[in-house]
Amino acid sequence: xxxxxxxxxxxxxxxxxxxxxxxxxxxxxxxxxxxxxxxxxxxxxxxxxxxxxxxxxxxxxxxxxxxxxxxxxxxxxxxxxxxxxxxxxxxxxxxxxxxxxxxxxxxxxxxxxxxxxxxxxxxxxxxxxxxxxxxxxxxxxxxxxxxxxxxxxxxxxxxxxxxxxxxxxxxxxxxxxxxxxxxxxxxxxxxxxxxxxxxxxxxxxxxxxxxxxxxxxxxxxxxxxxxxxxxxxxxxxxxx
Length: 240
Description:
Arc Repressor Mutant, subunit A, 2 domains, five-stranded antiparallel beta sheet, GAF, GAF domain-containing protein, CheY-like_superfamily, transcription, transcription regulation
């Protein structure tokens, strides 16, 4: 057993989630599986959504157990408000007994009821007092989520937080790797364009880069896009 925020948590459940992460086909697929497990762990919850915040940006990673949870989470992202985001931002449990008549988030309440939601429960996912994300449970009926459901949801949150935090770190590493790959590709294209300009104009590398940068500014286009166009045009001309 390990001590969690909401009580003692079976170690084998937390280990099972970590094994699930290792075998999952990507971070989002893992989070979707966790959402499905959470919906099954709480008796009166029909659907579950997970919202995970990035550590160094405002970007959110979302995953859901089904279409209802996907619709409700998407509504909140769209209006930038609602129980899920309030839970994430305040690191507090947020319960909504009757979504149709809750006045805290009028836009979400109206659209959420239209989507078929009756009640919801959002549980913060925390490590060392810091917010990792929010576990969001939804039912189609008002007043459907009981105190026992809340207790089970809180225990599941403890079970899942460690694996979800690890998934977040993996997602951020994947994003950094993608950004680096794009940056290296852009640098290679820019270097090629500078070489072409040097060959065509006789300028040195610094002057060739300034010419490329000036064209980028005057056309209001990204430097790498202007460079790619020069490289592509030269390649077509050579083939012709």
